[in-house]
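Title: Prediction job returns without error message
Component: structure pipeline
Severity: low
Priority: P3
Assignee: unassigned

Description:
Job completed but the reporter wants confirmation the result is attached to the right record. Sequence as submitted:
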Amino acid sequence: MSKPRVCVYVPIDSSGDSHSQMQQAGCEVVLGKTSWRTGIDRDTLLGISRGADALLGATIKPEPIGRTFFEQFSTLRIVAKYTIGVEDIDLDAATDLGILVTHSPTEANWGGVAEGTLAFMLALLKRISERNQHVKSGGWRDSTLMSTYLGRREDGYAGITVGIIGLGRCGSRVAELLAPWRVRVLACDPYIEDGKFTSYGAQRVSLDSLLEQSDVVTLHVTLTEETCGLIGHAELDRMKSTAILINACRGRVVDLEALCDALDSGKLAGAALDVLPEEPPPQDSRILAMGNNVILCPHMVSANVPGTLQPAIPLATQAVLAALRGEVPEHVYNVDAIPRWLERFGDQPLISRVP
């Protein structure tokens, strides 16, 4: 019997230890040559992965892989992602065909996003960019450079209100990090039970109420049909003209043209974006011409030392090995695929099962 074929289409393990681990388990390992910084395109992926039983890697750009891609694989069991996000895969198609998609929700990743969110918030509210530019241009103290005090004070100042859209791993960590700051925290997430809001010190409100009341709105949702374009003209119009928007989840959650309109017209005070609908953005993109009230980051808010994707290596590797043993791995994203997958592969181990 031939060895099961694992295609590591975007390798991130520079040590090669995880590749050796799969080889020692009886796998043929094929390594791609694409960097995680750029990702891999669908055609290149198809060219290196034919006949694969498992795909393992990071980002697939610019278009997701879907049904026509998967139908060219008769034995594919799993697509294991080193990343948290899986928006580069058509989950419905994978589920229909009984292919598992796993992701790697490491604290290094989602915790880094939460910390970066606070950095964005402080940089905008404390006007770090403007003050830095002012001093470097020869200026000094200036009353137009007053910043915002965040927390509730004993003198009666109520503090600001922070609205968190999405109270999953990232959003809840943001709420935890804000606790010592004594700010009011609102949150909106239809998929989280009431008790979680209370435990994170957040008040559950509707999306409209959150937008209307918040001084800072920060987005922490996954990209789905429901959340694509979640923040557009109507939503931005509901926000305070003094408010700021932070997006450290996925670029297409925000209508970028609507955001630029709001910033240009003064309907919104500022924004911080780690992600954009098109990455990198075209040089004529309006968002690149904004002033110091806009902070842009190259989709690297979770890229911290030590961290980034390295902690995901054992999670994704073990997911592949489990699937090849005919076992359901941890961190399956498309859980509805499991019954079909078990029907196809559950009694067909390709490598030895662990005693």
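Comment from assignee: result matches the submitted record. The mean pLDDT is 95.
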